[in-house]
Amino acid sequence: MKLSIVIVSYNVKYYLEQCLCSVIRACYGLDAEIWVVDNASSDGSVEYIRSRFPDVHFIENQENVGFSRANNMAIRQATGEYILLLNPDTVVGENTLSGCLHFMDTHPEAGATGVAMLKDDGGFAWESRRGLPTPFTSFCKMTGLCALFPHSRRLGRYYMRYLDKNKTNQIDVISGAFCMVRRSALDKTGLLDEDFFMYGEDIDLSYRLLQCGYKNYYQPLRILHYKGESTHKSSFRYVHVFYKAMLIFFDKHYRRSNRWLAPFIQMAVIVRGVLDLCMHQKERLFGWIGRGRDREADKSYLFLGRPEAVESLCRLGLENNLKIDFVVADESNKPDGHLDPSLSVKAYDYVIYDTGAYSYEKMLYLLSLGAEHTRVRIATYSMETSKLITMNNVY
């Protein structure tokens, strides 16, 4: 087996369904297997997904065992030469997996590789490439120096913005949202550290790969990442788990050589966590009183797709009071999609792509290209599932 894809899921069955649809397209012609580990979802994920994807291997947990432990359960049973850790709230381009495999095959020094993650408005997610959170790098991040001097190789190392995002680059940390790792490297480093319930395990694994003499890389191959759709980032639990992971990493790798820094690091992490929680709660409050983001039902949508999809989506739009304009299109007659000069894309908040008319690769390319000019957000509609999916809602 060449590639084993491992997806840990928790209460995101429709996003997982979309992810699997894109992964299956990307696996065409590859010797690959897919594992889904469900962490005790309460939304009927296992029954729903198992019936739709009978060839996928499932591990059904009776409790939420965390991200690291759930991944390890599948990795131990997987047989691939390469292991891909993939989040369920992602969409993978058709060429992404084959491109990563080719790179890993031709670069034996590579322990793992990541890719360019796009936000739903096409913007580049800087988490796609990160430096190790050494005490100094963490200090720059928490004090804002990283944001003030993003292109500095010393002060801005946390997000490595000084690197060209359109070129392959050697980096320190690969995001756990998409991390293709060499199985033989895992045999040397060990699996994910299960002390990390969620967050931080990707930093720890990346660090251990470097310690073993491997190199980590970034590839300018695109995926869409809804960035934690399965996580309520405004909750106390999120802030607590995230910053606890940062402390675990520091204690594991840096405390011994920086004992005098330990109390300052702990205090800084706690203060930053409290500030982040306050900011998230402020955003939620503004949303409740109408000063935050408008409801998606109040947004305007542009749909590009086949005639039969127009008819199907029209009914769904009426049922949900969505303001949708329809254009019959596909990759052959409108290869520029929502960037076609005949369309006034600036008049729309969302562009909906018919997944039967456009490849995921094309959608992501157009989304990233359009991000330089307008921040229209992407949505997808599949006639196979009869689902319209945005970052925040499934219709």
TrEMBL record:
Membrane-spanning segments: none
Domain of life from the UniProt record: Bacteria
Keyword annotations: Transferase
Keyword Transferase attached: yes
Domain Glycosyltransferase 2-like span(s) in chain numbering: 4-188
Record InterPro entries: Glyco_trans_2-like (IPR001173), Nucleotide-diphossugar_trans (IPR029044)
Alphabetized GO MF terms: transferase activity
Name of the molecule in the record: Glycosyltransferase, group 2 family protein
Native source species: Paraprevotella clara YIT 11840
